[in-house]
Amino acid sequence: MSSLLAKLAKAKSRLFGSAPESVPVPFEVPCDCGHRVTGIRRTSYQIAVCSACQSSLFVLPVNVYPTTKRIRSEVVDGPVLERVGTVVRDLVRGDTPPVADDSQEPRSARKPQDSEGLRDYGAAVDLKPKSRKSKRSAGEEDSSSGGSADVNAQEPADSIPLVQVPRPSFATRMRRVFSPTRVLALAGCVILFSTGFWTIHQRKLEQARKVWRLEMDRAETALKQRDLTVLSESLTLAVRAAKTLSRTDEESRVAESLLRQTEAVQQLTSIDLVSQFSNVIRDDGSPDVAKAGNVAEGLKGQRFVFELILKRRTAGETAFQLDFPLIVEDVAIDVFVSSSVLSGCVVGDSEPNVLFTACVRECQPPSSANRRWKIVLDGPSCTLVTTEFHAEQLGFDLKTFASLQSVLENQSKIVRSVHDSVIDSTLPADGGEKAGKETVR
Fold first, then answer.
1. Is residue 69, in this structure, part of any structural domain at all?
2. 329 and 236 within one domain
3. Segment (H or E) for 138
4. Among 49, 158, 251, 258, which residue's Cβ finds the most Cβ atoms within 10 Å?
5. φ/ψ of residue 358, rounded to 5
């Protein structure tokens, strides 16, 4: 009955964590005289004195391997379910008595002179285990000692067993790495970062909406007042705000087209193409190869404005050739361009009249074998002109070129359309007259 009560008390202390943190460990050391010395072990070794024969006895500390400062309490770590499981196993199995080690040899008789030497424990004490030595055979001992049986055989020191810690399983390592505290901390960081990013993004969008509406009003006013500088500044900010808002509606396309037209007016070159080509021809009518090469190299990257008839080179493709009727000193000029912007102006096999600006990507001078200039325009730089203000800034007078009004209106419809619309192929009544007014500036 007493053992059961002791087990229940121990189970209660282990379950509720009321066991003492340091457990006293008693010792009982037998002396050579037959008396037993008892006491409580300390954290370090101690010298006990026998009360019968006054011999000094060496007492080991609480924990020898490894040396610790205290004895762990019997409190079970972990959740309540693990504590209950441990308590149930202890109640069912009981305290397992320690198994005696049969391999240990009986302690050799202690000599009085050896025990008295321990009294002066201020001297250095070698506590290292002695190495194992091989035993002598019985015949060698008899021959060396002359048959004496009082020779003390040296005891082999027991080898220290290595502590083998089992490697934790993969699930255990994962539970240690992804502990609930770390998961909650990581989730909190993600939520905090997402909230901050969303707040900053919303502020950025709100600011972009304000800039968009304000700058579009400024651009409309500048367009009416024909102020090119203010128009460029306001359209730049408006297009940037539209990209922030990811707008692809009609109003954003019109703003981007107006900005490209404004930049084209500011980047328009002052080079006279006709005079440049005329200076290349000698008096005898042959082209000067050196001058022609310099002119071709100088035209690269220059922006010109074209008001010409557009012809498709191959059906279904975006490669076009401009109907360039200009001939300089019997030297023809071929202009080619491949642009998706201009492809919306062509319906089937129609040849509409277009007004646009573009940069020269490549220019090949004429030679003795081929007396033709070849100019290749840069497709991405092509910009359709849609307003009267930009057409006048490019050098066109709508009163003189009355047919340009319909061209500007049709090109404005292409820019405003959601899908790839095409220009109205219906030409005005003076179409024959317009063919002779192709202009290059």
1. no
2. no
3. helix 138-145
4. 258
5. -160, 160
How many residues appear in the chain?
Answer: 441
pTM over 0.85: no
Query: Is 128 inside any structural domain?
Result: no
> Which of 436, 342, 355, 339 is CA-nearest to residue 395?
355
Q: Residue 199 sits in which domain range?
A: 191-247
With both helix axes pointing from N to C terminus, report the angle between 180-225 and 250-267 in degrees, rounded to the nearest 10.
60
Q: Would you write out the chain's pLDDT as a tens digit for each of its 441 residues?
A: 667 777 787 777 766 666 565 678 898 999 999 899 999 888 888 999 998 898 899 898 887 766 555 555 555 556 667 777 777 777 776 555 545 444 444 444 444 444 444 444 343 334 444 444 444 444 444 444 444 444 444 444 456 666 677 888 898 888 888 888 999 999 999 999 999 999 999 999 999 999 999 999 999 999 999 999 999 999 999 999 999 999 988 899 999 999 999 999 999 988 888 888 888 878 777 778 888 889 889 989 999 998 888 888 776 677 888 887 777 777 888 899 988 888 878 777 778 888 999 999 999 888 777 788 889 999 899 999 999 999 889 888 887 777 888 888 888 888 887 543 333 333 333 433 333 333 444
The number of domains in the chain is: 2
